[in-house]
Amino acid sequence: MDNDIERILYSRDDIAKAAKRLGKQLTNDFQDKRPIIISVLKGAILFTVDVIKEMDVYAEIDFIDVASYHGGTQSSGEIDLVRDIGSDIAGRNILIIEDIIDTGRTLKYLIDLLKSRNAAEIKVCTLLDKEEGRLIDVKADYVGFSVPNEFVVGYGLDYQELYRNLPYVGVLKPSVYTN
Known about the structure:
The chain has about 180 residues and is of the alpha/beta class.
């Protein structure tokens, strides 16, 4: 798999430091709020685990799975709800943990969905923020790294369900997905 990577953007150590930094911020901001942390599957699971291990707050965790890439390298623009949360979020403080915010469509979909269920407050934490790719005006409250407008994989992010298990985030060689 390493041979398919053009260059590493964020090492295992870089990611661990970001998770620790964000965990401290989230601990301060969510103290006494008892949030429901919603991890966006599949990509955010590794980041979610590392961040919540650094948080010292009472919190519940739930999972939601949405799809927009459908195996390609760009968002299709259509969001499919694959797996819904099981929690009643009415009146609750919500922390969405994402792997990457690119076009903003998925995040807007998630925020609108949770607002329609009467969440009290919705905050967003993302490992990667690709602002150059943004088509919808949404912002994360907590960001691990800003990432260039390239196709990245690793540490939960995939191409055709592969590369999620790389311990770093890297740029996938175009030759891998243009053949």
